[in-house]
TrEMBL record:
Ranges where the Peptidase M28 domain occurs: 250-439
UniProt protein name: Carboxypeptidase Q
Alphabetized UniProt keyword annotations: Carboxypeptidase, Endoplasmic reticulum, Glycoprotein, Golgi apparatus, Hydrolase, Lysosome, Metal-binding, Metalloprotease, Protease, Secreted, Signal, Zinc, Zymogen
Location(s) in or outside the cell: Endoplasmic reticulum; Golgi apparatus; Lysosome; Secreted
Primary site of residence: endoplasmic reticulum
Native organism: Sandarakinorhabdus cyanobacteriorum
Signal peptide bounds: 1-17
Length: 455
């Protein structure tokens, strides 16, 4: 860092007791993490030796065992596993074909969806351009039919198009069920044109029985839309998932701070969907945040300089099926002074923006963070309205401050929730940039004493 910039940052800080050399240490940690960190070997190990980690299954349990062993090896302490109940959903057979043709459709059942009989169902298809059109449709256009819901998701750096169109998957099947549909097909929430459907969760409110619901690969969704526009369309669908009561858990480990009862949380979610390897979503986030903590731990071991606030890595379970782990964690820790939290859960590509949602007195901290991260090509978001990640949301609702390190999502939805979510898609240099950013930002927050909670 240039001396004048460093001096300006130190002079601009409020008159609170700040440990000497905070910013210099952050710069040193940033550069050390960029040069060497364990994120890549962690990601390879998780991918190759655990694999996909569907919520509530034995595979997710093996992931927790892997996480605890990794935390111990990296020098974290107070390693805990906190269990909570879930409904375990597992896919069965999946087939779909257009009657009167030789078209076999590429499909993936949606998590939480219901099942067809083993022999499947055959029904006419009603097509809707978007969710609003389905809402407006009379029951006569829906009842007893297979419903196809289209949308127009586009490529965006910040993932905003996913947010705009996501209700098609999350709420569309329930709406169709309430109007008497036999089953639902949706255009995948994705931006690639491979014949890879994008799975994901859907939900049915109390009193609405789950019906079969599947996502179509984009080329197949466009085939269905064209056939609908041309005239009558009939599809045979087989989808036989099962559901049962089960259990998941969150895993955490710490670098203890020098003061009691102030905690900074970072992490990712440990579960993944079953049809890929769970690399972009969210093995990368797990590896990035573990590696950031490992870099800080190595610094504290070398210098004897502990952070003021405890740094806690949380690897949440069962995010994919409705942020169940994030909600359980917030409830279990609602009395704890978790002052700041952030989650890495948007792939493995470079961070381009840093944002916050903290108390006004804590905003200057993010000026310091922004200055230290600027050499990594990261720009500030000055709005102080950041989200921080799905699992952080329940903590933020209780008043925890939010740190957002926003990753470039330009290609994220090409592989998100698909069989293409594999290790070859991760770029090591971009992964290292993530680790460097998380390391510096977390150190600065944990060595600070300004209030960050919003309530």
């Amino acid at each position: 860092m240039r001396p004048l910039l460093l001096a300006a940052l130190l002079l601009a800080a409020p008159a609170l007791a700040q440990p000497a050399g905070r910013i210099e240490t952050a710069v040193r940690l940033r550069d050390a993490a960029l040069a060497a960190n364990p994120a890549w070997p962690l990601l390879v190990d998780l991918t190759d030796n655990v694999g996909p980690r569907l919520a509530g299954t034995e595979a997710e349990g093996r992931g927790r065992g892997w996480a605890k062993a990794a935390m111990q090896k990296l020098g974290l302490t107070n390693i805990r596993e906190e269990a909570f109940p879930i409904t375990v959903w597992e896919r069965g057979q999946e087939q779909a074909s257009i009657i009167g043709s030789n078209h076999r459709l590429a499909i993936a059942a949606l998590g939480g969806s219901g099942a067809t009989p083993a022999t499947g169902i055959t029904a006419p298809v009603s097509c809707f351009d978007n969710l609003a059109a389905l809402r407006a449709a009379p029951e006569s256009e829906v009842k007893g039919r297979i419903i196809f819901i289209d949308h127009r998701m586009t490529v965006t750096q910040d993932g905003s198009s996913y947010g705009i169109n996501g209700a098609v998957r999350r709420a569309g099947p329930a709406l169709a069920a309430q109007k008497g549909a036999a089953a639902v097909m949706i255009r995948s929430l994705g931006t690639d044109y491979h014949r890879n459907p994008h799975t994901g969760s859907t939900s049915f409110p109390a009193g609405t029985a789950p019906i079969p619901a599947v996502a179509l690969a984009l080329p197949d969704a466009e085939l269905v839309a064209r056939r609908c526009a041309a005239g009558r369309l009939e599809v045979k669908l087989i989808s036989t998932p099962t559901s049962r009561p089960g259990q998941s858990a969150n895993v955490s480990g710490e670098i203890p701070g020098s003061v009691a009862n102030e905690v900074v949380v970072l992490g990712g979610h440990l579960d993944s969907w079953d049809i890929g390897q769970g690399v972009f979503d969210d093995g990368a986030g797990v590896a990035i945040t573990l590696a950031a903590a490992a870099t800080i731990k190595a610094e504290t071991a070398r210098t004897g300089q502990s952070p003021r606030r405890t740094i806690r890595v949380v690897l949440w379970g069962s995010e994919e099926i409705g942020v169940v782990g994030g909600r359980a964690y917030a409830e279990a820790h609602r009395q704890e002074q978790i002052v700041l939290a952030g989650e890495s859960d948007f792939g493995a590509d470079r961070i381009w923006q840093v944002g916050s949602r903290v108390a006004e007195a804590g905003v200057p901290l993010f000026g310091e963070i922004g200055a230290v991260l600027a050499p990594l090509g990261i720009q500030p978001d000055a709005g102080n309205k950041a989200g921080g990640g799905a699992d952080v949301g329940p903590l933020a609702a209780l008043g925890t401050g939010v740190l957002s390190l926003n990753q470039d999502g330009t290609r994220y939805f090409d592989v998100h929730h698909t069989p293409d979510d594999t290790l070859d898609k991760a770029d090591r240099a971009q992964l290292d940039q993530n680790v460097a950013a998380w390391t510096a930002a977390i150190w600065l927050a944990a060595s600070d004493d300004r209030p960050l909670r919003t309530k």
